[in-house]
């Protein structure tokens, strides 16, 4: 009996053991199949959607910005510092008059070799102050004449009243005189005399205390040109006289006249 029982147990070990399935295992298998189906459907939908979508590539063009105002190239200006230069006062050239009478010494003229000195006489008589006669100094007949560059206030030519400084008044007077000479001077006199090239005439005149032009003197290559220069300068209108220490004075003015005869 024992042997048969053991034999049956041994034989029973050779057969596989039947395992009873659980409910939880069945749910896992069912859910896995469901998740797989859902995932497959989603993948198909996404794939279909991607195929149906259209991707367009747009070329973006940048619009050019047009500037109405032209580009201005600015070149920096170069400034040159000029040194202050003192205006040199050129001395006025004296006018040498023609036809001067030379000084002739006689042949027997001899200069004194010795200088004789005499002592002054001394008066020892007392002087009574009541009998002293006071003698007034003689008045100067000729007024002092100033140069146009040295007078305190330069004469004012008509039309130059706006000039305030002496330099401006001298410049304005020079322009007015140049205009007067260009309009009134007859240059054909030189050509009629056969002159050619550059001709120079030097004129000097005085502006008296009343502003009148007087004592006109000229020097030129020909007497006719001298007379023509005097004639033109005699047409200068009356000026405002120059002043020295707030007093009208006479002023001497020198003017060159230069023209070219073709």
From TrEMBL:
InterPro entries: TonB_C (IPR037682). SUPFAM superfamilies: TolA/TonB C-terminal domain. Keywords: Membrane, Transmembrane, Transmembrane helix. This is TonB C-terminal domain-containing protein. It comes from Gelidibacter salicanalis. The chain crosses the membrane at residues 33-51. Residues 190-260 form the TonB C-terminal domain. Gene3D superfamilies: 3.30.1150.10.
């Amino acid at each position: 009996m024992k042997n048969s029982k053991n034999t049956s147990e041994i034989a029973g070990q050779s057969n596989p053991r039947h395992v009873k399935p659980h409910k939880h295992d069945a749910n896992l298998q069912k859910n896995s199949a469901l998740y797989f189906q859902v995932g497959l459907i989603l993948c198909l939908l996404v794939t279909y959607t991607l195929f149906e979508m259209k991707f367009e590539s747009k070329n973006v063009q940048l619009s050019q910005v047009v500037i109405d105002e032209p580009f201005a190239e600015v070149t920096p200006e170069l400034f040159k510092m000029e040194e202050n230069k003192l205006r040199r006062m050129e001395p006025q050239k004296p006018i040498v008059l023609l036809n001067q009478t030379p000084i002739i010494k006689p042949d027997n003229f001899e200069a004194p070799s010795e200088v004789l000195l005499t002592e002054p006489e001394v008066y020892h008589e007392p002087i009574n102050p009541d009998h002293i006669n006071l003698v007034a100094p003689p008045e100067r007949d000729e007024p002092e004449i100033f140069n146009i560059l040295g007078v305190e206030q330069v004469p004012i030519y008509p039309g130059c009243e706006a000039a305030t400084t002496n330099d401006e008044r001298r410049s304005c007077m020079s322009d007015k005189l140049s205009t007067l000479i260009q309009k009134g001077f007859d240059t054909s006199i030189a050509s009629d005399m056969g002159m050619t090239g550059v001709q120079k005439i030097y004129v000097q005149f005085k502006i008296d205390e009343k502003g009148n032009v007087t004592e006109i003197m000229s020097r030129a290559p020909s007497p006719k040109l001298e007379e023509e220069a005097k004639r033109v300068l005699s047409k200068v209108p009356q000026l405002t006289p120059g002043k020295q220490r707030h007093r009208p004075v006479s002023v001497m003015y020198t003017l060159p006249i230069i023209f070219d005869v073709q």
